[in-house]
Amino acid sequence: MTHLIEQLEMLPGVGKKSAERLAYFLLIAPPEKALGLARAIQEVKAKVHACRQCHNLTENELCDICSDPRRDQQVVCVVEQTKDLLSLESSGAFQGVYHVLQGRIAPLEGMGPEKLTLESLVERVRKQKVRELVMATNPTVEGDGTALFISNLLANDPVKITRLARGIPTGSVLEYANRQMLADALRGRQSF
Length: 192
Description:
This protein has 192 residues and is α/β, with parallel strands linked by helices.
């Protein structure tokens, strides 16, 4: 049981106590439930892989988003991870397609541009005549640096490069916003 607890502790957000509770649950669960979980893990590891076009996770050659004819293939939203894609997709506001970098440039963590899916992004922009690239990397030093690196890579290409808006969240109060949020909001202001 100790080995199972150690394995469960490796999951994000699962500490020792949660791992112990999960291990106990699996121990007392009917065999079909516990083995069903084990089979589901094996199945997902065997079948799920990166989409040929955008690097999203899929069981097919192309993910559901890339293969959807209603999506605008000329507008590509660049994200760091699949979880970022899922967050943006849940808004229902974006009707283009995505490109998952599978990370961000972070030299201190040993993550250089060669470890990202940049080659396929540049090839995609050029072959598919992408008209807009929406930079949706995280608003961090590494995320901004990655977006800048990509914009420099494509500086000579006829593609419009945009960045997600930043600033004051809807429903918030100005007095509680920090200086960076206020500065971003002022710089990114729009016509009313």
